[in-house]
Design a protein that fits this description.
Length: 299
């Protein structure tokens, strides 16, 4: 599945936090990597407190240096500089990914901790996730500063049916490549953590809502058992857990308690950027956790 990795870089040290994960994945998966720099029209002199690369030759030299510095000698690394200045970097990245380079994975660094409030309302990484149909791995710089990218525990949040099962094959590929363990989790809300129309219905008909939530838990249990049986046959270490509460809070806590190295989410980015990030469990987990997120677009 991950046969070609695209890594957009703007020349900043912050963006380079995506490089350790990219190098690790390239080695583990045997996947070639393309480093991409977009020349931005009317670009500021600095980006994330580093000098902004605005000249094509300078950008090419930078990407060549990064290829030699950040990747093992046997890795297949190429680079591309889009020299025609553009005023929309996000759309240019998405265009290069979907129309020209056609990678299977885009690796991006999100904003730092000081910008966590705006992490999923203005960052280039967030916009690429919302507009792209290609899986995106989001790396937080604090996480990469602490340790190299290695996968031993992969957390996969699923629902009680099969809406997000499209993320499982990707998680399975990584589990095989890294000999990692898959931990599936389904979080069923309680009456107190229901939101929107469901919360209103739950307050009016608490007995009915409780029965409905219990049925969702039973469905999740059966659903998980089918996956566990499948993983056992494939000799992939896996576990499953059903929990009650606020999904984002429970998932973030579970990631911390289990020492998860990666959270794999199925996402509906095509629902629209604002709707996706403001109402998404994914965004709420990202605000609570420093664990890298692999976001798989759902069709």
């Amino acid at each position: 599945m991950f046969r070609h990795i695209l890594v957009p870089l703007d020349g900043s040290k912050l963006a380079e936090a995506a490089l350790p994960a990219s190098a690790s994945l390239a080695l583990a998966l045997g996947a070639p990597v393309t480093l991409l720099h977009i020349i931005e029209q009317d670009a500021p002199e600095e980006v994330h407190k580093d000098r902004h690369l605005t000249e094509p030759e300078e950008a090419k030299a930078y990407l060549a240096e990064v290829a030699g510095r950040a990747f093992p000698a046997d890795a297949k690394v190429s680079w591309h500089v889009h020299t025609a200045a553009v005023d929309d970097v996000v759309r240019s990245i998405v265009f290069h990914a979907q129309e020209e380079m056609q990678p299977d994975l885009i690796v991006l660094c999100s904003h730092g901790r000081s910008e966590v409030r705006d992490l999923f309302t203005s960052s280039i990484a967030q916009q690429v996730v919302a507009e792209s149909t290609i899986p995106v791995l989001l790396i937080k710089p604090e996480e990469e500063a602490a340790r190299a990218f290695q996968l031993k525990e992969i957390l996969v949040p699923l629902d009680n049916e099969s809406v997000h099962d499209a993320s499982l094959p990707y998680a399975e590929e990584l589990a095989r490549a890294y000999q990692a363990r898959l931990n599936m989790i389904c979080v069923i809300p309680t009456l107190g953590t229901l939101s929107g129309e469901r919360a209103a219905a739950g307050s009016m008909l608490p007995a009915t809502a409780t029965l409905y939530l219990d049925m969702k838990e039973d469905n999740a249990r059966q659903h998980f058992q089918e996956h566990l049986d499948d993983f056992k046959q494939k000799k992939i270490a896996a576990s499953a857990e059903i929990a009650r509460g606020d999904p984002a809070a429970v998932i973030a806590r579970k990631a911390a308690e289990s020492g998860a190295d990666l959270i794999v989410f199925g996402t509906h980015g095509n629902a629209g950027m604002e709707a996706f990030w403001r109402r998404s469990v994914t965004a709420n987990v990202a605000r609570r956790s420093e664990v890298p997120l692999l976001l798989i677009p759902l069709q």
